Amino acid sequence: MIELRGKAVADAHKAVLSERLAELQAKGIVLGLGILLVGDDKAAQMYACFMEKTAKSAGFGVEVAHLSADASQAEVLAVVKRWNEDDRIYGVLPLMPMPPQVDPDVIIESLDPGKDIDGLTARNIGLASSGKGGFWPCTPLACMAILEHYKIPLAGKHVVVVGRSQVVGKPVALLLLEQHATVTLCHSKTTNLEEHLKQADVVVAAVGRAHVITGDMLKPGATVIDVGINDLDGKTVGDVEYASAIEVAGAVTPVPGGVGSVTTTMLLENIYEAYHARNVNR
Ligand code: NAP
What we know:
Rossmann fold, six-stranded parallel β-sheet, binds NADP nicotinamide-adenine-dinucleotide phosphate, single chain
């Protein structure tokens, strides 16, 4: 059984990215990231701190706007507008959740699609899913980067994706199709999940329920990409029960240390892509 550790994947991508950033820095160009945080959500605050630190240490310029929990929608929109118009900012990351008086969809759709580095806007969803460019969200990109790094074959293989969210399940299914996999997309109304899983050469689990998939549900030798991040008795675990999965599967991503370790790097890559799209591809 191979453990598909995310760090090796992230390190390989970071090495390429840091060369590209060094070339830009030699020309005096620093790519700016705007992180938008509204309110007191602890997980969002922790993620903002982590993202700020990671992006700065990779050589990006970072601006964090932390608005209070009673900020009006107009105040939040004003920050996005300022960043949309600021040429030094190449990526804007609005963190969720937003307080009830702020409609997250309005904030997302106000983003300049060229700076929407987590592929949240309808324009980027349309562009990416129709193969016309645009940004894919970072978590599906992380899943694909892991599969590519560990040379897991996809063409002609049967992949079962569990979960159909707009940020993970649906886009990863489309990315897998692009790689010529035969994709089955399962969700909470799927009646025969186990039957599908038993046929899967590759499983991508993006459910958000601890240990909903166990080793006995898997096909021997399958590759398992576990996107889930769940708390189970104070411990962070995936959607897949790791201990039983490793008895059956050929390769499994650990949680933590798998997909989550690659996601941030994909976000940073998308900032570079935003620079490239604005300055090189035009
Ligand atoms: P989400 O929006 O809640 O979507 C969950 C999906 O799972 C839905 O499509 C739902 O079906 C399906 N589902 C729920 N219960 C199911 C069941 N018993 N059997 C089959 N399908 C079931 O969640 P998400 O945002 O996609 O996130 C999924 C997980 O990934 C969470 O644990 C999240 O924390 C984690 N995550 C990790 C990263 C990372 O970087 N590693 C990034 C993002 C998210 P319906 O559509 O029918 O409701």
